[in-house]
Amino acid sequence: MNKSDSERIAGILSHFGYELCDNENDADFCIVNTCSIRQLSEDKAYSKLGVWGKMKKHKPLKIGICGCVAQQEGQNLLKRFPYLDLVFGTHNIYELPDLINKEGRICAVTDKPIAEKEFNITRTRGLNAWLPIIEGCNNFCSYCIVPYTRGRERSREPQNIINEAKNIIKQGYKEITLLGQNVDSYGKDLANKPTLAYLLREIEKLEGNFRIRFVTSYPTDITDELIETVKNSKKICECFHIPMQSGSTPILKAMNRRYTREQYAQIVKKIRDNIEDVTITSDFIAGFPGETEEDFNQTLSAFDEFEFDYSNTAAYSPRPKTPAAKWADKYVSEEEKKKRLLILNDKVKEMTLKSNQKYVGKTLEVLIESFKDGKFEGRTRNNKVVHISDKDINVGDFVDVKIERASTWCLFGSKK
Ligand code: SF4
């Protein structure tokens, strides 16, 4: 979502004569678009501001910060970083045209989203275009800051999304990824309650040779209608990103996730039973407050039971305003969290390799995305990276590739 916001911010600034540059040393205006999901990402943003502060001593430079840290800290940032010129929150992106020409140091952080306006979007992701469909979250997981920084769920009108999709296809993009913190909640706040499945079917009807993806799914919001839609589609890719966060039901309860391990299992089974060659990926937190050795082992066993194709992992990091941050008496030691995270990462590698090996000998459709180091690289429908040895193909082609070999992070093959 942040990357998509950055493309929108760059697009808005392009109307005022700015263009993206490759090197920050050449920039007149540097903006860091921040994430505050973990302390580490927040700290990285602050250190970036420090670097730019030093640069500003030697040349005229405007410095801005936006995104979740800006939303969370607001005015404090202007006090803490005297060289900072502009702070704008997650709800203030469309106010940017008014903000950039104002005199003095500005902080614009509101709780009420500023309505979407028509601007260019400076897309930066090759053949893939992000398309936000819903923003915010109503779930209030006990560790998560997103509902405080992104606000409650707000769906975009289906027609606006479809119009944007039409433009994306017209501009030659080959993949559209529908985005939301909670993409399956799409439409619940709109009149007529359009669903994600409906939206996917409408986008699929658009003419052109392109793929559709969607991310991120909340487990219990995945409907039979959605599974059926993906199953029957030619354009929607067969992959679901469904964060489980822990394999232990008591920890899921403490996290305020609204499902048990057994309910999660039923969803995974339904998807795998219905959709051939589907990939299911996840997110897990190691060392949530109160997580015992036994709870952690339940997480490891979840990998074996659900055969995840890949997972993101993170050590628990207390976030301001969240309930779990107040449970210091239950904190897992830093050392233990680090240890569990390493074990988890090894498990992810083991499962990812196992998942990749399933495809050796199969033929998969690959969208060729780039040519690097003498080899073409592309992605399968189920989001596996493939290196292809053939030369007579082009970036942007959809090619049937026979998979010959698998490593942990990619597949190798040649044109069939
Ligand atoms: S569903 Fe996701 S975004 Fe929403 S509160 Fe939970 S972890 Fe955060």
Labels describing this entry:
pyruvate-formate lyase- activating enzyme; five-stranded mixed barrel; four-stranded parallel sheet; 13 helices; 17 strands; 416 residues; 3 domains; 34% helix; globular; binds iron/sulfur cluster; alpha/beta; OB fold (Dihydrolipoamide Acetyltransferase, E2P)
State the gist of this model.
This protein has 416 residues and is α/β, with parallel strands linked by helices.
Give structural notes:
The chain has helices at 2-14, 39-56, 68-73, 75-80, 96-99, 146-149, 158-170, 196-204, 224-232, 249-254, 261-274, 293-306, 334-357; strands spanning 29-34, 62-67, 86-88, 106-108, 128-132, 134-135, 154-155, 175-179, 211-215, 239-241, 279-286, 310-315, 363-372, 375-380, 385-388, 398-406, 411-415. With 416 residues, it is an alpha/beta fold. The strands form five sheets. Strands 13-14-15-17-16 form a five-stranded mixed β-barrel. Strands 1-2-3-4 form a four-stranded parallel β-sheet, sandwiched between helices. The protein is globular and about 60 Å long. Iron/sulfur cluster is lined by residues 137, 139-141, 144, 146-147, 181-182, 218.
